[in-house]
UniProtKB/TrEMBL annotation:
Molecular function terms from GO: alkylated DNA binding; DNA-3-methyladenine glycosylase activity; DNA-7-methylguanine glycosylase activity
Signal peptide: none
Biological process terms in GO annotation: base-excision repair, AP site formation; DNA alkylation repair
Taxonomy, superkingdom: Bacteria
Name this protein carries in UniProt: 3-methyladenine DNA glycosylase
SUPFAM superfamilies in alphabetical order: DNA-glycosylase
Coiled coil (residue ranges): none
Entries under Gene3D superfamilies matching the protein: Hypothetical protein, domain 2 (1.10.340.30)
GO terms under cellular component: cytoplasm; protein-DNA complex
Keyword DNA repair tagged: yes
């Protein structure tokens, strides 16, 4: 759980007043003795092993120019989130073996307390044993891979729903338009992104539930997906409780909402809960990629994929990520999934 003291992970906050007992954020805290940016709260955390910020936090990015996610030339990762305490912006960077973070906004304390979990403090990579040469090679090349845990269900669930039955580009475009139109500029400094647009915090659950039908239509979202998002937003408090549940119970909680199935729940809980075994089923491409990488079978279905991943029980999601990161995909032999014009439906 976020904020729980973990004796295996040293966490320090330097400068300002006395830090919290667990080394958590303090309004006067600064990272590394440096003066924090105006209005920022700061934290320095030392992980027990290597952490690659790009690979670990990469699954949280929803395509190019994602309104709540930016990377900057200095290697920093910026994220804007709708936390239980309100909107907030987080900047994460590396100083040697240590991780520095600054946060702005009403939810700044929450994000800083969540920082270790976000960067995989609850993840145990030593439990993973590679059993295939490709997986072994990918694992060896990426010692800094950690499975992120955001602790925020709706933040991951809504973009996953938008990705149902459409291309990634279509889903990313819908997400960008809806967040910029119905969200709000992120607290803290202006961080320009592609096209000069800064960070945005995604809408609150109440706002998602009140988006009019014509705005969904303009964003390219059909009624089935928009209705699912509205249903999820109306029970957002109950869904957020899934972040503290074991995988089976959390998936059942999400799938109780009509329109949310195993594919959507797995893709969501991989990010919100950091579950190392949350393997995605029902995906158009993943079984073929796993089958091709592990057995040369580009026509593998879900059953064949699960059989191939069986030796990684308890770590199937990590194995799938390592296979995807290896980039060993079957040659394309069918046309790309066609774009959908909902105006013609």
């Amino acid at each position: 759980m976020a904020g729980r003291f973990d004796p295996l992970n040293r966490t320090t906050v330097r400068g300002g007043r006395t830090p919290l007992p667990d080394g958590g954020p303090h309004p006067a805290g600064t990272a590394g003795g440096a003066k924090p940016p105006p209005g920022a709260k700061a934290r320095r955390w030392t992980p027990t092993g290597p952490v690659d910020l790009g690979i670990t936090l990469g699954p949280l990015r929803r395509g190019p120019a994602d309104p709540p996610f930016r990377t900057t030339p200095d290697g920093s990762v910026w994220r804007a989130s709708q936390t239980p305490q309100g909107p907030a912006t987080l900047r994460v960077s590396r100083t040697g073996a240590e991780i520095d973070a600054e946060a702005w906004g009403p939810g700044a304390d929450w994000l800083l307390e969540q920082l270790p979990a976000l960067l995989g403090s609850g993840d145990d990579p030593t439990a993973f044993v590679p059993r295939h040469r490709l997986v072994h090679a990918s694992h060896r090349r990426r010692p800094g891979l950690r499975l992120t845990r955001t602790g925020l269900v709706l933040e991951s669930l809504i973009p996953v729903i938008l990705e149902q039955k459409v291309t990634s580009d279509e889903a990313y475009r819908s997400w960008r338009r809806l967040v910029r139109q119905h969200g709000e500029p992120a607290p803290g400094p202006h961080v320009p992104g592609r096209y000069g647009l800064g960070l945005y915090v995604m809408p609150t659950a109440r706002t998602w539930a009140m988006i009019p039908s014509w705005d969904w239509h303009k964003a390219g979202v059909d009624a089935k997906r928009s209705d699912t998002i509205v249903r999820a937003a109306r029970v957002a408090r109950r869904l957020e409780e899934a972040a503290a549940m074991e995988y089976a119970a959390a998936a059942a909680r999400l799938e109780a909402v009509p329109g949310i199935g195993p594919w959507t729940s797995a893709e969501t809980l991989q990010r919100s809960n950091g579950d190392p075994d949350a393997v995605t089923t029902g995906d158009l491409h993943l079984p073929g990629i796993i089958g091709y990488a592990l057995a040369g079978d580009r026509d593998a279905d879900d059953a064949a994929m699960l059989e191939l991943l069986a030796p990684y029980a308890g770590q199937r999601h990590r194995a799938a990520r390592l296979i995807l990161l290896a980039g060993h995909t079957p040659p394309r032999r069918v046309p790309r999934m066609p774009r959908t014009d909902i105006g013609l439906l």
